[in-house]
What does this fold into?
Amino acid sequence: MGGRIISIRQSLEELEQREERERLLRECFAAAIRSTREYAVEIEAGLAERFRQRLASIERDLAAARLEECPGIQTSFRGELRVYRDRCQELVDRLRNQVASAAAAMQVLSESVSSNGSSYEKELHQELHRLEEAAESDDLPAIRAAIHSSAAAIQHSFEQMQSRNNMLVVQLQDEIRSLHQAMESERKALHTDAVTGAWNQRKLAERIDQLLKLDESFGLMLLAVGGWRRLVKEYSQETVDQSLKALVAYLKERFGTEGMIGRWSDDVLAVIVEADASAVAAFGDAVSQALAGGFVAPDLDRETAPTLQIRYAFVGRDHGANAAEFYPRLGYQVASVTA
It folds into this structure.
C-alpha cells in the first residue's frame, strides 16, 4: 500500500513538473513575441503597427492553445518575422536606390553646368575672333556691323546661359530639398515612438543629459498606466495603442510647446518642462488631479473602451543641484509608479 502511495506521489510530482515546464515554455515564447512586437523598427508608416497587431494575435492564440498546437504557432511566428524582414529589406533597398538616383541627378546637373559653360566659352571665343578681324579692317560699315552682330550674339548667349542656369538651380534646389526631407524623416524616426508619435526614451534621456550638463532647472513628470498587462490581455493591441495615443494628444494639449512629451517605457509616459521645479510640480499636480478619475480615449466607445488609470510621480531638479543624484531618483520613481 505504501509503495502505491509513493508511486502516486511520484506521478503527481512528475505531472506538476511537466506543467511547470509547459508554463515556462509558454511564458518564454510569449515574452519573445512581446519583445519582438515592442521593438519592431518603424521604416514605413503603418508597417510596424500592422506587424505588432499580427504578433498580438499570435500571442493571444498562444495563450489559448494546447501544448501540441505550439509548433503551429511557432511556424506562424516565424512566417510573420520572415514577411516583415523581406518588406523592410525591400524598403531599405528602395531608399538606397533613391539616394543613388539623387546622386546620379546631382552628377548630371554638374556635367550639364560644365557642358553649358564649355559651349558658351566656344561661342564667346568665336565672337571675339570676329571682333579682332573687324578691328584690322578699314571698312567702317563692316566694323559697325561686326560689333552689332557680336554684341547681339553675346547678349543672346548670356540670356540663354542665365535661363539654363536658373533651371539648373531650381532642379538642384528640388534635389536638395528632397534629400533633406528624407534625412529629416529618417532622423525623426530614430527618436520617436512608432505607436504614439511622441519622443522615445533615448531622445528624452538626451535632453535630460543636456539640461544636467547646462545646470538648468527642470521637472520630469511620470504618468504610468496602471494594470498594463491586464489591459494588453483584455483588449486588442490596436485599442490599447489608440488609448495611449489619445493620452499623448491630451498631454500635448495641456502642455502645448512648454512640455517635451515622450514614452519612457511601454506603460510610462514622461513630460519634461524646463522651468523652476516647484512650478512644474504644481502644474503636474493639477494634471494628475484632472486624470484622477481615469482617462478614456474620446474617439473610442466609452462603453467598451478601456479606462486608463494613471499613476503619477514627479522628479524635479533645481539649478545647482547635484546632477549625479537625478537618475537614481528617477529610477526610484519609475519603479514606484510601475510596481
Strands lie at 199-200, 218-225, 259-265, 268-273, 310-317.
